[in-house]
Amino acid sequence: MKFKMQDKQNQLIERISDKHLVVGVDIAQQFHVARAVNFRGIVVGDPLTFENNEGGFTILLQWINKLKKTNNLDTAIVGMEPTGHYWINLSK
Q1: pLDDT per residue over 43-63, tens digit each?
Q2: Less crowded by CB within 10 Å, the N or C end of the chain?
Q3: Where do the domains of the chain lie, and which CATH numbers do they carry?
Q4: Is the pTM of this model over 0.70?
């Protein structure tokens, strides 16, 4: 039986529980924008615009931790689309 990529994606999605904060980051050259949702896809908090540097990444982490605490969530999952090379600093 051939394993399809869609099956793998479905398995990953099924592992997301009601204790997860899901953060999507729109990557750009100088400023990124993060948006957070709960496990059902309902928006949690306001979007965050942050710089593509260490200071901006610290602000992102503080924002994530605040949203987790405010909404009684345990874990954050961060996803981004790799745009050019601008995502590399954030991924590290």
Answers
A1: 999 999 999 999 999 999 999
A2: N
A3: 20-91 (3.30.420)
A4: yes
